[in-house]
Amino acid sequence: MNSNQEWKSRKDAATPRGVGVMCNFYAARAENSEIWDIEGKRYIDFASGIAVLNTGHRHPKIVAAIKQQLEQFTHTAYQIVPYGIYVDLAEKINKLTPGTHAKKTAFFTTGAEAVENAVKIARSYTKRPGIVAFSGAFHGRTSMGMALTGKVDPYKIGFGPFPGDVYHAPFPNALHGVSVEDALHYLHTLFKTDIEPSRVAAIIIEPVQGEGGFCVTPVAFMQALRTICDQHGILLIADEIQSGFARTGKLFAMEHYGVIPDLMTIAKSLAGGMPLAGVVGKAEIMDGPNPGGLGGTYAGNALAVAAALAVLEVIEEEKLADRANALGKRLTDQLHASAEKNPSLKKRVAEVRGYGSMIAIEFHNPETGNPDPEFTKKVQAIALEKGLLLLTCGVYGNVIRFLFPLTIQDDVLTEALGILDTALQTA
User: Fold this and answer.
1) Which of 37, 45, 239, 262 is catalytic?
2) 239 is catalytic
3) Same domain for 259 and 120
4) Cα 198 to chain centroid, rounded
5) Selected catalytic residue, list 138, 171, 363, 402
6) Angle 203-258-182 (CA atoms, 0-180°, nearest 5)?
7) Which range marks the domain in which residue 370 is found?
């Protein structure tokens, strides 16, 4: 068996540098919240494949569902030969997503595809071109996804020009000096200076920004967006790709707001590690495009759909939304305790924030108050050396986000929190 270093040498020679890779080891196997590399070292996974594994690695129920489907067929292309489990999953998603209105769901393969298709649906239904997104947003790496994304490095560097009729407004972030009132003022100014609201098809927003730093959309802002959209005939798209499926302590983050979006994008933890995404929305809006206007060769792949049906059962049976709240409290208590026993660390902590188990800690320089990506990287590196995978995020790279599986064993979480404390104290 090749060593990690040998595989890295082969990787560097065979694959492009544009596919950035965080870890210097190669996976051999994984179970629930743990990964073992090809040299036998164990890691605790606080990344979950970037929020894909809310139900953990290889949950037995999901593995069984995939195996059962594998015995029947792997692919027919749903648009050519349909199958019942696609319809079954669509019915369940329609029922579980916010709102009691009539809904329809279409499945795709990746989160970026879901976003692209949500834009297509919005434009088709409204007959308008404009889309408004927010600073700090992440909506994918396709051309439209990059256009909507509000973070330049590394996602947009060298890839322009981007699709037109996409506009950005500041995201409300009190820590960085943008109040709800400021953000609404900027949005209204956008309607005066860049695009009239009657040309805007949709406003797209993450209830909790993912790559942007787990910044939580204020309730007042989300409610104001709903009012603005209703006033001008604009659709509200909630991007729940990272925040969905119990991560925030509710099945979907929009349940924290009392606001019903017109369209929602879903992916990541929908299928427990299998590639599946979707757009769900008001039935009349979803029916805007003509037959053949939506789809994709692998869209709604049978193995992935079977996995997703099992994921929904696991979330309900194991009460993962409630568990997200309990685990998130343990994490935030530990983060605050780590800061309290170290005055120097406490001065570096700008904020601990999030819903449920979608928690982040942001660091700033105690002297200047500026974002501190260097300290953030040190914490991440020390944790990795000690066997704990952490992800950074934020426009300035000064945020650590925590994405452990919601099925993580209690003793493994305790071990991980000990490593995290050590990393914070010694960085």
Assistant:
1) 239
2) yes
3) yes
4) 30
5) 138
6) 50
7) 4-58+319-426
